[in-house]
Amino acid sequence: MNLLSCIVAFACAIEICLAGQQSLTPIIEASEVQCFYVEVTNTNYTFLQLYYQVLSGGDYDIRLYVIDPNENFIIEDERTTENSHRIPLHGLGTYKCCFDNSFSYQTAKMVYILFNMFVSDSEEVSEEITTLDVHNIIEGMDMTVGNMKDRLGKMRKRLMTAENLMRSGRIHEKQDRAFLDSKLRHVNFWSMFNSAAIIVIGALQV
């Protein structure tokens, strides 16, 4: 296998995923709909990864719908606690992601939202790899391109698993914090109420 073939095969085996990543933790008030807009301005972007989880409020459920630049509904989730969607991007424009809490008349919902836009940029990978002596690397490690692809695939899965674990830890931390804040508000309220009642009763007895 010559050097050029090694470079081409190795470049094709690697998928570089890059993107604009953004996480939000908005509070969707009762009877309210909040929409977030993702502007796609680069034709190299291939898909949008959307993950969300309700951290607090009511039955921990929310509606979601996603509208593409042509005003087509491409995703509709009905009162879901947690979900993840891989949305193909077929063109430039604005994708609208709306979280609907209109079915709840009293309870606000805190929602963790993560947006990731990914792009496969094989040309950039090829340019980087040409600066390496790929042929000597393959001979020295006694690896075939197929083995390299398998190992890269396993490495990518491990990295994704680690990322999911870290993300899950952050979500549970936010959920626990929201729960503790809610309990603290209840404790403070009843403490103030009891203190006021004691003062009033004491004043009446005097």
TrEMBL record:
In this protein, which residues make up the domain named GOLD? 33-119
Main location group: membrane
Q: Which SMART domains match?
A: EMP24_GP25L (SM01190)
Q: Please indicate if the UniProt record lists Transmembrane helix as a keyword.
A: yes
Cell compartments where the protein resides: Endomembrane system; Membrane
Record's keyword terms, sorted: Membrane, Signal, Transmembrane, Transmembrane helix
> An example Gene Ontology cellular component term from the record?
membrane
Per UniProt, what is the membrane topology?
Answer: Single-pass membrane protein; Single-pass type I membrane protein
- How far does the signal peptide extend, from start to end residue? 1-19
Known SUPFAM superfamilies for this protein? Supernatant protein factor (SPF), C-terminal domain
Transmembrane as a keyword?
yes
Family of this protein: Belongs to the EMP24/GP25L family.
Q: What is this protein called?
A: Emp24/gp25L/p24 family protein
